[in-house]
């Protein structure tokens, strides 16, 4: 074997090793970026759920307070409670039945309105101490049962006279409940409470709101053994039990959620701490990729006393076939680039050796530069969003941190703007995902053309975009900074509103609007805090009717 052949083989082996290492590293970093995207998605869905759950509990407590302050309702309950006691407790006798019927009749008009406007599912009067059912307005034929070891929220409210709220299983329904104690005299909270009034709703309307705003499917799943111990059999049979047998569907926004949950890896439903989030993605039998996040469901007992363990789980899922296809295309592209680079280098190396070792160094340097160019091209692909060409989230965070440190030394300030395309789910549903992608690309091009030099734009995820805007912060320039920031946000909003997106459909073109939340960063404030604040302002813009800029 000649010396030139040995050199050729040795260099070829070296190139193969370098090429293989490049492919492996590119696959690793692409996988990490994908997992970070899924983690952020799960954190966002859980945060949105928690906010809406707390708002629902506050609403239930306010409604319970309103009902409890009705003098006629209060008087009828007091007389009914006295009748039950005088007639031996439990369901009471004929006199208790008279007051129970009168109380129900008095409540019916308000109950009908509250069910329609606030999606109430439970309205329940309890006699203290502890919990003796006097009247279930939602099931008036069931009363007189004690729930001292089941309805801890009622037991606590009658014991210390304090208002309570939380999720709890019941004999008939599970629900998000607001509870107020009832005292002998309205408005005078002295002495022991003689009972409690409970108002509750199911998770179903809450999940439907979440699905509308996020586009994700949600489900609340209860542990079957907890449900079996709490609910009466005649109401338990109405709940759907999953194939895995240990979980029951309490509420869901998707009829096919049971099939999805049955395919989820079992470790997503294993016991864990109350704040732990689990995320997994997998390929279903129909070749669609699904990402699922679960976290423990808090009930009143686990939330207030850290006792009893979680009664179930909250699950949210999305179809991420598009993201997974893009990830796999990125891997395939890196392999193709590596093969092309290897073949190009082999050809260059062959001719370099054939023409003599005197030209070898020059040829190898040229080939090395080719590798650098390919690495640079792949680096650009790894740092940008494949659909829009904007920065991806990981790269945006890295550059934003560098920008934050630089502008602090230059007496400049930063602002964060969160932009969301209004009613994007309707566009996808009506025109399909191909047109939806076309709309996202058009918005991205408009943002890139509208912002100033030095501003950063990234695709935050789905139909959301994130901007980092620079502006002066000196005292005499504060007003100018504010107006500049307002002008940039308004200019972006106006540019998108004026956009006409041509499509190959009978409608000819699509017009879209965006909601914008924009806020200034304060001092050494963490970027994540400003982003969360901008996200909250974005939701304020959504609640305000969309197609607007909200600054805070």
From TrEMBL:
All residue ranges annotated as the GGDEF domain in the record: 412-552
Keyword set, alphabetical order: Membrane, Transmembrane, Transmembrane helix
InterPro entries, per the entry: dCache_3, Diguanylate_Cyclase, GGDEF_dom, Nucleotide_cyclase, Rev_trsase/Diguanyl_cyclase, Sensor-like_sf
MF terms (GO), sorted A to Z: diguanylate cyclase activity
Coiled coil residues, start to end: none
Database matches in PROSITE patterns: GGDEF (PS50887)
Broad EC category: transferase
Keyword Magnesium: no
GO annotation (BP), single: cell adhesion involved in single-species biofilm formation
The protein's Enzyme Commission number: 2.7.7.65
Cofactor: Mg(2+)
Gene3D superfamilies on file: 3.30.70.270
NCBIfam families: GGDEF (TIGR00254)
Protein known as: diguanylate cyclase
Annotated organism of origin: Lamprobacter modestohalophilus
């Amino acid at each position: 074997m000649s010396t030139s052949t040995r050199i050729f083989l040795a260099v070829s082996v070296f190139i193969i090793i370098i090429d293989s290492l490049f492919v492996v590293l590119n696959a690793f970093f692409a996988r990490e970026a994908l997992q970070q995207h899924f983690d952020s998605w799960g954190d966002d869905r859980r945060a949105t759920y928690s906010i809406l759950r707390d708002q629902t509990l506050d609403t239930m407590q306010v409604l319970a307070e309103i009902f409890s302050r009705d003098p006629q309702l209060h008087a009828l309950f007091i007389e009914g409670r006295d009748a039950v006691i005088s007639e031996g407790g439990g369901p009471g006798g004929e006199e208790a039945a008279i007051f129970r019927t009168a109380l129900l009749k008095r409540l019916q008009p308000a109950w009908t309105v509250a069910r329609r406007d606030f999606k109430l599912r439970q309205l329940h009067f309890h006699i203290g101490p502890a919990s003796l059912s006097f009247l279930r307005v939602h099931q008036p034929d069931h009363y007189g049962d004690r729930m001292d070891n089941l309805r801890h929220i009622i037991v606590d409210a009658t014991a210390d006279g304090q208002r309570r709220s939380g999720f709890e299983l019941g004999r008939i329904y599970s629900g998000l409940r607001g509870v107020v104690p009832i005292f002998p005299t309205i408005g005078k909270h002295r002495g022991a409470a003689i009972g409690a009034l409970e108002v509750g709703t199911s998770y179903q309307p809450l999940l439907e709101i979440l699905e509308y705003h996020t586009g994700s499917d949600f489900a609340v799943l209860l542990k079957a053994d907890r449900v079996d111990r709490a609910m009466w059999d005649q109401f338990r049979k109405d709940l759907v039990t999953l194939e895995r047998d240990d979980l029951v569907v309490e509420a869901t926004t998707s009829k096919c959620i049971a099939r999805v949950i049955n395919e989820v890896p079992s470790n997503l439903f294993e016991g864990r701490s109350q704040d732990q989030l689990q995320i997994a993605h997998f390929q279903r039998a129909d070749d669609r990729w699904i990402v699922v996040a679960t976290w423990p469901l808090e009930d009143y007992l686990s939330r207030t006393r850290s006792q009893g363990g979680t009664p179930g789980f909250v699950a949210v899922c999305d179809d991420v076939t598009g993201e997974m296809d893009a990830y796999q295309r990125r891997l395939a592209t890196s392999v193709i680039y590596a093969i092309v680079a290897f073949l190009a280098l082999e050809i260059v190396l062959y001719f370099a050796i054939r023409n003599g070792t005197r030209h070898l160094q020059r040829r190898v340097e040229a080939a090395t530069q080719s590798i650098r160019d390919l690495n640079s091209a792949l680096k650009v692909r790894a740092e940008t969003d494949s659909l829009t060409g904007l920065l991806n989230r990981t790269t945006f965070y890295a550059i934003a941190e560098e920008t934050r440190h630089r502008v602090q030394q230059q007496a400049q300030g930063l602002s964060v703007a969160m932009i969301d395309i209004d009613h994007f789910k309707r566009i996808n549903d009506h025109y399909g995902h191909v047109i939806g992608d076309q709309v996202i690309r058009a918005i991205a091009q408009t943002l890139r053309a509208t912002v100033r030099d030095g501003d950063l734009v990234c695709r935050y995820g789905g139909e959301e975009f994130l901007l980092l805007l620079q502006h002066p912060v000196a005292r005499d320039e504060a007003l100018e900074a504010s107006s500049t920031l307002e002008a940039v946000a308004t200019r972006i909003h106006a540019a998108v509103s004026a956009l006409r997106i041509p499509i190959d459909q009978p409608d000819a073109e699509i017009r879209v609007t965006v909601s914008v939340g924009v806020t200034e960063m304060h001092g050494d404030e963490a970027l994540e805090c400003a982003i969360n604040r901008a996200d909250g302002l974005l939701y304020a813009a959504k609640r305000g009717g969309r197609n607007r800029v909200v600054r805070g």
